[in-house]
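User: Assemble these into one structure.

Assistant: Restating your components, then the assembled model:
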Amino acid sequence: LTELEVECIRRIAAEKAIPPDSIMLDTTLESIEVDSLDRVTLAFDLEEEYGVEIPEAKLHQIKTVRDIALAVQQALTNKQAVPDSADAA
Amino acid sequence: MRRVVLTGAGCITAIGQDVDTFRSNLFAGVSGICDVENVPPGELHFSKVASVRDFRPSDWLMASQTKLAERSSQFAIASARQALSASGLMKAYAGCDVAAVFGCSTGGRSAEEPETAKLYTQGGRVHPLTVPRSMASAGTSLVCIEHGITGPAYTVSTACASGAHALGQAFHMVRSGMVQAAIAGGHEAPLTYGFLKSWDSLHVVSPTSCKPFAADRDGMTLGEGATMLTMESMDNAVARGAPILAELVGFGMSSDAHHITQANPAGPAAAMSQALRDAHADIAEVGYINAHGTGTDVNDHVEAEALHRVFGADARFLPVSSTKGLHGHAMGASGAIELLATALALQQGVLPGGGPCVLDETLDLQCVLRVNRAVYTSFALSNSFAFGGLNAVIALRRYVA
């Protein structure tokens, strides 16, 4: 597991009060009762933590733990590829 | 029509976070007014509020509620659980036969204000739980979810009369048979920086502390808290051996149609008269009035005038007190907190005094209680009058088994 994947699992486990080792990368969010409000909240918290923004379309496609970790990872990659104006200056 | 009784109560207030503590502090005259916290010194013209100190959300919130419940909803959850537990209401009625009607004026300000302040000053994004945390009806929803209440449920917002309007409407719903039972009351957590500053600008908050009907009164003291009460038909309550606090007998409402902040005596008088008519009671039966009594110059004048209009020559000798000098003015929760105080007064046979002061003689109310009066009273009114002239008065009768 990557550090990012561990962090996603940690946050979900804490939010749903379930043991982290019961959550696999391919666990569907639905199966552990992560509803749509939990999902946008989880995404928001991860976005804040990593300073990224997951595109709206991507957010709606997230079904598993792997999806959300991947979405954050891609946002991070995009951010490094396209430095914002402050970084460029 | 069915007779309706109050069977369970719960409260989170500046003078107690359960009914027993509230009762003992109410009758001991212990004030919950304390220093304002979390506001930079010199920012306000006043320094006192009636806050709920040492409230521990973790004592009350289930894991599923922790992130969703802002302080105002936390108060609703805690007080509702106390009331439902005391009355055993949900064991006696199906969820679809129970209504939940709560008063809340300001919503979840502590969830909204910091997010908005950050947005306006730094830009950026707003937390996705801001809407569910800050909506005024969140408390009603969270309580319904917790207890499986699926009957009529909504939140009433009539500023400082919200809790009284909520209780009165729930009473009429139970009396008419629309529902078998209800939980109703008010909850409010308005002591945020933005709200305190907003009140400060109105110059109606006391720079000392709230002294209702006193000659030297100089304004209200802002407070927070919640009170919830369960109600059901007297027949059912007696049959199932539920504890009975008092009988709800009348409810009156009116609008001043006058001014957005200045009250007018006609409105409060009409609400009191309506409550008496609804209770089929005569003015001579009234033995106690728990006044709205905010301690502002205008309110206490207008309320005194309204009492004179309704009670005529009897007004002078009518036992009246306002308990806001103890628990502060908890906005939309006030009507519920004060109905609990009124019910306890009838049950205990003790009318609570408002605290020592020199009375304002120009009000011509000679029987404003400053110390407790030990007397069994059979009938009382609880007055709630809101900014904007929205009035609600509830009549209670002492219950004797």
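DSSP finds five helices and no strands in chain A.
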